[in-house]
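Morning - zinc ion inputs below, output right after.
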Amino acid sequence: MKFLCVDCDRQMTFEERKLPGDGTLAAAFRCPRCGRVVAMLTNPMETQLVASLGVKIGGTTVAAQPLETVRSMVATGKPDAFDDAGEQGEGRGPSWSPEAQERLGRVPGFVRGMVKKIYVEYARDRAIAEITPAVMDAARSELGLEGM
Ligand SMILES: [Zn+2]
C-alpha cells in the first residue's frame, strides 16, 4: 500500500513520524514533485495499517493483527479525512476555551488541523458550545484517541 499524489501521479515518500503517546502514531507523506504533504493520525489499532507500509515505529515492530480490520477502516475512510480547512462552510462551530487552545497548540503542527477537526466534530455532534480540556478528555476516551 502506497500514498499517491493524485495531481502528479507520483508515489509520496514517508517523511516524518511522531508518537504523541500511548500508541497513537502520526505519519506524514510528501509528494517529491509538488511538495504536497498528507498526514495520518492513527489509534493503536490503526497503527497496524502504518506497519503494513513497512514503517518502523519507535524502533519496534508492531505486533501483527488481522488485516481485515484495517481493510474495513480504509473502505469507510472519508475522502476529506486529511482536510485542514477547519470549520469553513459548516455553520457555526464550537468555541475554544483558552486552556483548550493552549492544549491544541501542543499538538504537532502537521496534524493539528486534523486533531482540531476531530474535536470540533465531536463537540458539534453533542451540541457542546465550548471545547474545554474536559471536553477534549471526554472525546479522547470516547473516540479511542488517547495520547492526542
Ligand atoms: Zn504532487
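Note: Residues 5, 7-8, 10, 31, 33-34, 36 surround zinc ion (CB under 6 Å).

O.
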